[in-house]
Amino acid sequence: xxxxxxxxxxxxxxxxxxxxxxxxxxxxxxxxxxxxxxxxxxxxxxxxxxxxxxxxxxxxxxxxxxxxxxxxxxxxxxxxxxxxxxxxxxxxxxxxxxxxxxxxxxxxxxxxxxxxxxxxxxxxxxxxxxxxxxxxxxxxxx
Length: 142
Fold this sequence. Notes:
four-stranded antiparallel beta sheet; globular; 142 residues; 5 helices; alpha+beta; Endonuclease I-creI
């Protein structure tokens, strides 16, 4: 299946989600985009097309009393690359994506000690991440 970026952007605008999610504790946050669709040959082909272009993983969700659904997720830098490709065509999620870009460009990367172990993120970084994640949640509710 060959699908244009504009089509994928429209599909994501209606069916997708973008979020800034934490790993808990002092590990900081990352970006995740996802699309959930009922399992069907056409939706499988479409999501496979997106996964071929931007990566990520597809898993089947077994929803009690409902049809099985695909959940396609793309995280981190790959999610940002996907959003950059889609952004010129987005309408409904444009503001959410722009806020996500702003957070991504200003985020602090995780530091490591001399042994290569991850260090805890400074509280100021965790606070900034939380502010952006909360702002994104508010945008989704509007």
